[in-house]
Amino acid sequence: MLSVRSRFRRPIAASLGALLLVTSTAGCYEYAPLGRRDPAAATRVDVLLNERGRADFVNRLGPDVLSLEGTLVSRTDSAMTVRVLEVTYINRSTSQWSGEEVVIAENQLRDVRAKRLSKLRTGLMSGIVAGAGLLFILTRSITTGGGNDNSPNTPPPGNQQ
Questions:
Q1: d(CA 53, CA 46)
Q2: In angstroms, rounded to a whole number, what is the distance separating the alpha carbons of residues 132 and 119?
Q3: Which of 10, 135, 138, 155 is deepest in the core (most CB within 10 A)?
Q4: Beta bridge partners of 45
């Protein structure tokens, strides 16, 4: 028969594993508005097109394009060049691209966001991982030096006097 403690070890470990998997896939990055200052080349960007942009890129990107994600190649006051890695459509389906360059005029843009490290998400993720590690150690009695079965100190059978 399993002890109460043993019965709860596996569900706790499975729950912690699932929690870590979910939080790690969320990542520690966020898309923040890209300022008008000169962004660094190779910045990961998410470009949201306006109605005109969607109409202008029907032949190049396909119908009903909502946004494209890629790497910024260059940006001027009037246009930006993006190496496209993924296109998202209005129905939220996506299409993977292999880095073709697209020039997008400022009047075709609704919004541009840059991928940046999120201090809040990174802190939360670090806290979750540390807490999960501590919980793992506490539930395994790793630091206690062994189990305590609370049995009286009796000699083994055959050595009794």
A1: 14
A2: 20
A3: 135
A4: 70, 114
**Cα 86 from Cα 105, distance rounded (Å):** 19
Closest by CA position to 13, among listed 161, 133, 123, 95? 133
Reported as a single tens digit per residue, the pLDDT across 36-76 is 555 666 688 999 999 999 999 999 988 899 999 999 999 88
Of 129, 67, 55, the C-alpha closest to 92 is 67
**CA separation for the pair 1, 37 (Å, rounded):** 67
- Residues with Cβ within 8 Å of residue 23, at least 6 apart in sequence: 124, 125, 128
In angstroms, rounded to a whole number, what is the distance separating the alpha carbons of residues 11 and 64? 45
